[in-house]
Amino acid sequence: MSTRLRVVLGAALLTVATYAIAQEFRGGHPDTYVVKRGDTLWDIAGRFLKRPWLWPEIWQANPQIANPHLIYPGDVISLAYLNRLAAEPGPRTEAPINAIPLSQVESFLKDLRVVDDFDDMPYVVGLEDDRLRSAQGQLAYVRGLGASRPGDRYMVLRPLQRYSRLDREQACCDRFHKTDLDFRGERTLLSNSYWTDPAGVYWDTRKGKDFLGYELQRVNAGTITRGEVDGIEASTLLLDESNAEVRIGDRVVPVEPQTYDLQFFPHPPKQTLDYGRARVLAVADMLTAGGPRDVVALSVGAREGVDNGTVFSVWRVGSNAVDRVQYGEERTEDSVSFRKKVRLPDEYASHVMVFRTFDKISYGLVMEGVKPTRMGYELKHPDAAY
Question: 177: which DSSP letter?
């Protein structure tokens, strides 16, 4: 990992104890600071503030610079007042400085997206030489691209999972359902299917409610070399990426010109979310736990006010334990009702920054943590102390 990325992430992701401290300058700061080439908002804030991820909001409260999200080399930042920042614009001869440029995190991101339905998407119906898999430099045959022309660019997507949610009833929290999909995008008897309960325990089940969306991942891309002509009922796609092999059943859509934002400005959630509503749905690459620079699917999206750059703290939900001092060692978990168990505290795990947002689901990058980030963990405000 690059030194610059270490600096950015290190400044961004402080310990929980630091997050709980009221915003203030670090001791021994100068009265002014002149922005230099190579600085980022997080770099500067990390030197002088104890909660640097709040820098864009603090700057926005001071109108001396027209765009609070852009700074330039030569800008003079006033640090003379403990509870206030002011900035004097400098010359505009160089490019502006961003918070976290895409180039510093892009290699860790997974090209995932969420759709309500993919049945009508064109799909790979066959492969060159009747292979089971095709890779870069080989051909895939796509059904449903009748209007395509030679030279058109398409990306290949693979349906991975179906997400749904069951609203809370008497329990404290919603329950979330994840189902793995087969090559047709359908559930089979061999697919993994889980419910998550408030303590992060999983039950095997067959159906869920409150559909959230289907997850698809980009596996490759290519160029059309021949359309559906002379009785041929499939278009020919020459694969040209080395990401992953293509298989029958993968979906095909036009290439997007810009998948991600060019920069991310970390900030807290715009609204308070009910406890148990915002959870880690899944960890990319079919895992159940991840660490720094892993991608996680989150159970909240644009409808909950989540946008790119939103920062959450991630917590293991406290267990509901049997009080064996009161009931005795012989009592089993099943022999004590939920209401009579002792709710233990939630445990801090990590921080995550959202980098791609859909209506009901978003994707975040785990930035730094003290323990693995797992399916079912709770999302809270980054300042949360418990």
Answer: E
